[in-house]
Design a protein that fits this description.
It is a single chain. The chain is α+β, with helices and mostly antiparallel strands. Strand 5 and strand 6 (154-155) form a beta hairpin. Strands 5, 6, 7, 8, 10, 11, 12 and 14 form an eight-stranded antiparallel sheet that branches. The protein has a four-stranded antiparallel sheet with strand order 9-4-3-13, with no helix packed on it. The protein has a two-stranded antiparallel sheet with strand order 1-2. It has three helices and 14 strands.
Amino acid sequence: MSIPFPLCSHSPFLSYIYISWNTSSPSPIHTDQYSIPTMTEDHKEATTNDHHLKLPNPNPPHPYPGRRSPKKIVIALFAMIILLAAITVLVLYLVYNPKKPTFTVIDAALYSLNLTSPPFLSATLQFTLVTTNPNPRVSLLYDRLSATVYYLDEAITVPVQLPDLFQERRGTVAMALVVGGGEVPVSEEVAAGVAGECKGYGVVEMRLVVMGRVRYEFVGGFRSGRYGVYVRCDVLVGFKRGLKDGDQVSNLIGGETKCKVDI
């Protein structure tokens, strides 16, 4: 009895082995009864190429080789402008070397000082403040100036807005600052401290603070950016009793007082 048996089902060349046997006495299989065809070199190459898939290139060539994107060009120009501006400011600073202005309180007057519950404090003061620009080739422009009086690091007057100020090179300007006039809520410590110093020593230690912005104007009209300016003047104001409101009842103790300036 013979049964065809496929040797390799996936091969394009189907070959069969005929297996014969006798139920009574099986006979061995003779390999010379069949032959297996071999694959040619062309077929091997074709089969190998079919099994390799062509994947897309993850880095396709630029559609316009040699051109930069507009976004990169804008970023590069912006960075170049910032770099040139920084170099210009640095050169001007090294050439002109601008110095901070000076502020000095040369006089002070207290026109009224009242304490009411719960507590509220109302005071009216006047300060004569002199500022000097020491720079021979740089002018100063001030804006958004305001003045406030403090006692024990607590404001006892409302901020007063001051006009803009232009200061010439090596120029000096004197300002008469009138601060206060309205009631300001204060702490118990401040109320007790002001009342005790007025009744006991007759001297009140106060701090005049002037805040704003300043710009440097160099020769040729070039102006720098705006910088914050903070002027702090610690003064001793003498208090005299027995005078009516509206009279000058105090003066500056210790003479002229130089202020600390931060820019």
